[in-house]
Amino acid sequence: MFNDKKIGALYVAPFVIGFLLFTAFPFVASFVLSLTDAQLQDQLGSANFTGLQNYTEMGRDATFQKSLGVTFFYVFITVPLKLAFALFIAVVLNFKLRAIGFFRTAYYLPSILGGSVAIAIVWRFVFAGDGLINQALEMIGITGVNWLGEPNTAMFSIILLRLWQFGSAMVVFLAGLKAIPEDLYEAADLDGASRMRQFWMITLPLLTPVLFFNFIMQIVQAFQEFNGPYIITGGGPLKSSYLLPLMIYEEGFKYFNLGYSSALSWVLFVIIAIFTAIAFWSQKHWVFYAQESDKNRGDKK
Amino acid sequence: MTSSSVRLSAVTKSFNGTDVIKGVSLDVKKGELVVFVGPSGCGKSTLLRLIAGLETPTSGEIVIADKDVTYAHPSKRGVAMVFQSYALYPHMTVEDNIAFALKIQGRPKAEIRAKVHEVAEILQLDHLLQRRPKALSGGQRQRVAIGRAIVREPDVFLFDEPLSNLDASLRGQMRVEIARLHRKLGATSVYVTHDQVEAMTLADKIVVLRAGLVEQVGSPMTLYRHPANLFVAGFIGSPRMNILPATYAGATSDSVRIQTAQGSLIIPRKDVSKPTSDKIQLGLRPESLSLAAPGAEAHLTGYVTLIERLGGETFAYVALKEFECEPIIIKLDGETAVHNHQEVALTIDLKRAHIFDADGLALGHALDFNPDVV
């Protein structure tokens, strides 16, 4: 009744339908919407085509510019910090220690809990005026800070939430560390290289493919951070933690400016694409692949 | 100053309660190339790593160039090592790989450059200096690994099965190259291999190891001609020594009488004391057996079960009459006319026959054995 082709099509159908419906269609639709003055409550098809007006509007929108600045600040701080922290923990967890399996699991746990809504709520309590941190500070005689009420410290609490989800990057680093042959370190030991020099001269260069992968993943994730600002700070105070994804959400679903919100999404998309492209372009200068073909191969004698 | 370059005294090593090295004492003289050989798991690589400082002994003492280095850091021992996997830094060029140790030592740039080029010339790597290891052939990588060791001018070179990743023809070539290099540099070297041909051809002195203990130490020919026990006799020499069951039937000052399934033999041998058990074993190398000339006395008879012709030489497998053992191998001239199922009479070069007691220890010595020459 069914031939092979039909059966094959049947197997891939769920993905194809899901992809078309939930990825491809919104992708295209959001671009179309970004060129209109669509409102969330409007009838479908009643929006007017406004060309690039939404995009030019951003140039005059102080909130957008503030949000963009805050987003860049957030990404530029969290990505390097998180990569460095994940790498540090991975290096420590790569030591041959007793019960290392337990520590690896324990350090990965925060990432299983992750940046979920529940954890973000916990975070809010931890950093609240009468929260855990201030209570602890009080015990040692230090007056607490209004963490979520001050523009500087509010951002700090969101950055910290992202840092504590270092687990997935750490696991990838750990796998990369394990892939470096032990005898390279033994050879370096015989050559008299200290642990520190071994790290800089052997570990780090050989880890660059993993570092590159983690870098891309972290850049993409950081630009899309939503839970933290939405639940913990609400973007405030004074829009000091008003990351772009939160603005996109609020423009669309709070102020019903679907057209403008879509345009903001596309700007975010282009920003992420540019950063990813720069990273890919730059990798030939700093990423070392053990398997890549050598360019100097021509001089064989 | 002593003439000893590396000295191990009662060195032991256990991993998690398992004894891997069970008390090894050894002297390596200055300029000597000593080969550790033995089956896998015999502890030869561990012993090398103990000398390198990559492992710490459980007990015992290691002295290199008159300095006690038992617990010294690997870089403070004056040793350089060539690893089985070459352990080249994949992200560095050949030049940087060779220069690595000198850079770490903080030597001046001009000196490093000069040294690297000198070493590259010795090893014919000069045209490859800007390449990365992955763009090199196995043999070239091996040479870079050796270059990295040479450039440090160590007291002792350590080689950990350096040729085992190469194909057979390249292995032969590199073996010759290492021998040439050793003669040229005259450096003390310790070389680990499981390949007895490598051991025989390279070594000034072979150390045969089994299960963490030294079975015998001696020059290649000493081990070949005067194996101290069945293990060494079986391990050194290819094809292996043939072993036949026999019975002890008395000895004089220069001979032993033994009884085999095909009659009695008198074997020239000295220093023979009566074994605890009369059950003994007769060891015959393939080349100490030949086809008996017509009319001449034959020591053994049997029939041919298989012939291997290698061109210059022929190996014939002969099933012996009356014996309950595997067919023995005899080495014949390549042109010898033999065929399958042929009945053959064999002559033994009795001076070259070996006898082992029930525990596998050599019974007495061949008449030409000189205890002062090892």
From TrEMBL, chain B:
Residues 6-236 form the ABC transporter domain. Keywords: ATP-binding, Cell inner membrane, Cell membrane, Membrane, Nucleotide-binding, Transport. PROSITE patterns: ABC_TRANSPORTER_1, ABC_TRANSPORTER_2. One of its GO terms (molecular function) is ATP binding. It comes from the Bacteria. Belongs to the ABC transporter superfamily. This is Sn-glycerol-3-phosphate ABC transporter ATP-binding protein UgpC. It comes from Asticcacaulis machinosus.
